[in-house]
User: Fold these one by one.
Assistant:
Number 1:
Amino acid sequence: MTDRLPPAPEFGAPIPLRRTPEVLEFLSLRRSTPAVTLMEPAPSAEDLNAMLRVAARAPDHGKLAPWRFVILDTAAKAEFARRLEALAEARGDAPAAAKLGKLKAPPMAVAVVSSIRASAIPEWEQLLSAGAVCTNLLNAALAMGYGCNWITDWYAYDTEATAILGLAGGERVAGFMLMGTAKEPPLERERPDVGALTSRWAG
């Protein structure tokens, strides 16, 4: 799949703007894949590198790159889940342990970590950039034919859980991007009524 990815343009090179109906078609049918339906094979190293390159082209006011990636391959993800399960059990929190099913099923996860930079750029905009990275990564995985699900859950917010992942002070998990091959096509879900959510400012 990665042979379809064009070479990275040189700094300052003009980027052509053109109609790409195939992209619109993809986005109009875009559907996340339930995590529990994801199985081997995981994305190859080459495909994953291409996805990360696409993800990093997200809007980023100030060119701060206020985010980073933590890759959890199959064995690493299993160990991460084991340590989270031990944490939940030590607390006597059976519901939290049960919620790890989504993390355990897929063969790969990529944590997108929001890392706020000291800058005049507002923190809110840096957080939005991390969310845009998650969206790009999700869509890149789907466009390459893999299943992908963007989740958070308790272990994205719990300080002991994020310490296991290796987050520094002030960092947050913007999303765990769970990846693999879908056992079956995802079913369409209910979508919002765009008209009901849209207005025009009249001054």
Number 2:
Amino acid sequence: MGKGGASIPDEEWERFLKEAEAGGAGAPEEPSARARMVAQRLREEPGGPPEGWRTYTPARQRKGKGWAALGLAAAVAVVVVAVGPWGIADWFDGDGTGATPLAAESERPTGPPAGEGTDRPPTLDEPFRGSPAARWSDGTAGIHLPEARATGWMSRAEVARALEKTRDFLAASALDPAVLRGERPDEAMALINPHQSDVRDYLKKAFRAPDRENDPLLLFSRFRSSDVRPAGDVVKTRGRVTFQEGERGAVQVSTDVTYVYPVVRAAGGDDEVARTIVRREVVMSWDDPAKIVIEPGTFSLVSYKVDTTNGGCDTYTGYLTPAFLAERAATRPDGGAEVDPYDRSTSMEERMRESEDEGCGTASRS
């Protein structure tokens, strides 16, 4: 399906989910995301706590922990973004701030970004005013790709293609205008190995009956166009992609990207701008088809973590639900720790460990 097109019919979707049930001769069983994560965790952190944590933040932040039902280690958080009759240019052209973009993030920063005049609220003309994102790049330009090198079963050129496809997945899952309008992320899902039974089950449930453990927002940014529309033409991003050799010679790619979505109420009548910040870490494995049952050009999903600010707390509708000032004033935080959603100096693993109880915390800025 092209960007902005209609969702595929349910019958075709069912065929997609049920296809490829038989593996190639001599190929191992279909890759289990849970098995991958457990093995990795045992290698890296013997005796440590399990990784599946959840963290939410609107003007509040939801915290918690647990494995996702599909067997993926997951940390969750909901975000707020806009939707409406927009084209691709609506999300990628210009920032309206005149600020000089920062250099690409090639490694983890040593501390949180300095304050950016948080006493100055955003406006329709400057939706990122008062936010560190004013100096971030637009769309995929803010996602740093490393230089490719031969790794595992892949040549340098093959690794380069895998990195490009990885960025394609990030764009299709968190920046595609149709997906942001609430449509099904067909292009993104087409890049996920259809032989992963746990992922197939998750995707099927997430779009039919979303709940805490089967929530499309774990991997995709989606909003109701009847609720919000974009404030301006840009989604700001900052993040990086890294890779290493994984199991059975696979190329394991880790992505850690923060997305900032400015929105206004769809109903109109005022020009109040709200921002939703979503930091999402997705780990994927580009497997050797001689060793893993996988379709060409797809990856096996290993794990995900999500930390969301102003996207909804304890809401499982399958859509991000941003709050505006009046709604925030009516909802008091429940005592959760204060978190800076722009701080990328702390790993997602550390961020999830900071909060051990479920609930909604407070974001220090938006």
